[in-house]
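Hello again, I could really use a second opinion on something today. I've been staring at a protein lately and its backbone has me curious. Can you walk me through what the tokens say about the fold? Take your time with it, there's no hurry, and the full record follows here:
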Amino acid sequence: MSEQFDWDVVIVGGGPAGLSAALNLARARRRTLVLDSNRPRNSATFHSHGFLSRDGISPLELRKMGREELEQYPNVSFERTIVEGIEPRVGDGGFTVTHRGGAVTTRTVLIATGLREVLPKLPTLRAFYGTSIHSCMECDGYEYADKPIALIGHTNDLAERALLLSQWSRDLIVFTQGVGRVSAADEAMLAQRGVRVDRREVADVAGDRDGLTGVVLADGETVAREAAFVRPDYETALDYAAGLQLTLDAEGLIVVDAAGRTSAAGAYAIGDATPPGPQQLIVAAGDGAEVAAVINRDLL
């Protein structure tokens, strides 16, 4: 049956989730193709943390090492390209995957493309993003223990995020940008931990070659801070998968069962594009290994 298809599995996305799935599928002797655009969400970050045996490694170096490990398996191929469409094939239960380099057929597809970050619209933020401004406090909070930190956001989970961030530093100011929701009760709770809430509008951030120096408010005041965490919005980039007619949740994430199966038979999804959304790299890699085992059994 498999000979009528070019591949057993086509994986869209070559981050930790996709590469981990590819490695485990390779070892199960599945013919696997990884298609990746090389545009990872964490490309601005110099160091990633919490990945056992690789703590502090560059995310780009981690991906490079993963690809090199796959090269020893003759049944796996990696191609840097943009996927343009995935369409179910009529009659044989497989899929045609179209990308800028051509088109291939496959028995199954695995979506591991992650999310896009939509950062606060502050003119100078990108200059410090990945060095002294971050989005993942679990990944980067340790490096700023007991230092003056800002949390900048507009979502209704700011108080929860501030409570978590106070584990690393109580010298913390939450900037709601004039729209973030922090209730009076939450503000009082945070105050007990020494955390302040500033409801003024943020105009920009300030810094120099050594990193962030402060948060610039619309009224002209600059509040001194050595680091900041932002609460981005996240978007899926799933136009290429429109032909699968996947079921999405209210956040636009791909609905999957406990084994990573989507609403389209033969299509699977892992990583940040599935609930609960953004995850640490090691968690995404674990998802990849788990779903690879499911795909291998389903193909039997």
Remarks:
- The chain has a mean pLDDT of 91.
- The first strand starts at residue 7 and ends at 12.
- The CA atoms of residues 91 and 107 lie 12 Å apart.
